[in-house]
Design goal:
- This protein is an alpha/beta fold.
- The protein has helices spanning about 20-25, 45-50, 70-80, 95-105, 140-150, 165-170, 180-190, 220-234, and strands at about 5-10, 35-40, 60-65, 85, 90-95, 110-120, 130, 160, 195-205.
- About 35% of the residues lie in helices and about 20% in strands.
- The strands form 2 sheets. Strands 3-2-1-4-8 form a 5-stranded mixed sheet, sandwiched between helices.
Length: about 230
């Protein structure tokens, strides 16, 4: 039986970019897929855009504004796939990204996959890929040490997780507003037997002037960053 993948897209006021993210999910060459869009109380047209894509492949959930971690948790609870792909609503996947990573993980069933990622603003043809030391395969602790020592990071869309590892890692921490992804994927890495880096599996991280959780500032964000750093050290 062909394994399936759930692509979870949390969105909050991302009407400008949401369609492009959904289109990149629909364009995946891995046929056995579902897309779960979770609107986190958007006040723009995000929800109506998401609902325009509803089909046998795309499900749309709506909740009051509770934050990105809560939206991802809602997506996880609804997901039915054997693999989990997170995709922020302003980011993009290359068409064969998931297929390449699934094929790699089928030979490494207790590992997680990462991939190359580039920064862009409007056009992915202009994306800049900057190779970092963590763009390699590592055992869990070695990957974390390399990252924490300045070796770089992976944004959520760069990863692909077997479902059983996502379940072992537990839910996203909804008390965090900054570095929630760093804390979550630290647990995911430690629940795996290692990180398999698939260089051809590309994702695209959009940099822009809009609101991103990773760009949050202020006392609450500073506290969240401190708590996340403390939890990662435990």
């Amino acid at each position: 039986m062909i394994p399936s993948v759930s692509i979870i897209i949390p969105c909050y006021n991302t009407a400008r970019w949401l369609a492009e993210a959904i289109e990149s999910a629909l364009a995946q060459t891995w046929i056995q897929k579902e897309i779960v869009v979770v609107d986190d109380g958007s006040t723009d047209e995000s929800l109506s855009i998401a609902r325009s894509y509803e089909s046998c492949e795309v499900r749309v959930l709506s909740q009051s504004n509770r934050g990105a971690a809560a939206a991802r948790n809602a997506g996880l609870q609804a997901a039915k796939g054997d693999f989990i792909q997170f995709l922020d609503a302003d980011d993009i996947l290359s068409p064969d990204k998931i297929e390449l990573q699934i094929k790699s993980l089928l030979n490494n069933p207790d590992s997680i996959a990462s991939g190359s990622w580039g920064e862009f603003r409007e056009n992915i043809q202009d994306a800049i890929f900057t190779r970092n030391p963590i763009w390699n395969s590592f055992p869990p602790v070695e990957w974390l040490v390399c990252s924490w020592q300045g070796g770089g990071m992976m944004h959520p869309a760069a990863w692909l997780l077997p479902r059983h590892i996502a379940e072992a890692a537990g839910p996203w921490n909804e008390n965090l507003s900054l570095d929630d992804d760093g804390e979550y994927f630290c647990r995911v890495v430690l629940c795996s037997k290692g990180v398999v880096f698939v260089p051809e599996a590309k994702s695209f991280y959009r940099t822009h002037a809009g609101v991103r959780v990773s760009g949050a500032a202020g006392p609450k964000a500073a506290e969240s960053s401190y708590v996340s750093s403390t939890l990662k050290e435990l």
